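Why does residue order matter? Because the sequence determines the fold. Keep that principle in mind as you read this record.
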Amino acid sequence: MLNNNLNTQSTEVLTQALPYIKRYTGKTVVIKYGGNAMVDEQLKAQVMQDIVLLWLIGVKIVLVHGGGPEISELMGKLGKKSEFIDGLRVTDKETVDIVQMVLAGKVNKTLVNLLGMNGGKAIGLCGMDGKLIESTFKDEKFGFVGEITKVNIDVVTDILENGYIPVISTLGCDTKGNIYNINGDTAAAAIAGALNAERLIMMTDIAGVLKNKDDVSTLIPQISIKDAKSLKKEGVISGGMIPKVDCCIDALKKGVKNVVIMDGTVPHSIITELLTDEGAGTMITE
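Structure:
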């Protein structure tokens, strides 16, 4: 009897997923995998499994990743203190070298390897490859923190057309040879916009937009751009959620169909969001 119940549940899950599989097959979904959602190795491997599953059913996945905790960890080992202003890492010349080593090296290739171990085909990129992310100085007080001036998306579309998963670390460059540390949310929004993506998923370590920031049960499942402006005035959207929501709105204005902010530390949250009626996190739409 137990086996029959399990079989019935499995069938219901697959049946529920069918219309969503039809919806997303052949469509582009950009996933921003935040550094704070990547700290658990077992969970990281599970997220890569979910991405491969989506890729196998024909979803064109673009994975944009951060790596803040690992950057801070290496800086500490090298005796260098992390400094932040307005949530952005102050990045001098030595720090940008560390950022490049961690993001374009260790983190990027670890994710590419995990995708491959789970049956996927992935290629690692950073913003310097094909001048994907052209940048300039955002503000002198931040050092080598970049403001995106142009996204040259051809290298990403070429990789997608050849059946691979692009895995992108958020570094930028300019014509003078400078390398910039780019905010991951900003980069993901710009890349998703350049691709006219069906969806941008912001995976972080928070559930989404909450009416009460200390109570997960107050999650707001869907808001519009207009709602977001009102929630900012009310103080519901505050602190670090403000720039994240602003990036989501920017992505929508650039042509992304809809954006979701969700907790990437919840097992199989990507599958729940894309392939079930339940969904996950807060969806932001025009």
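The first helix runs from residue 2 to 24.
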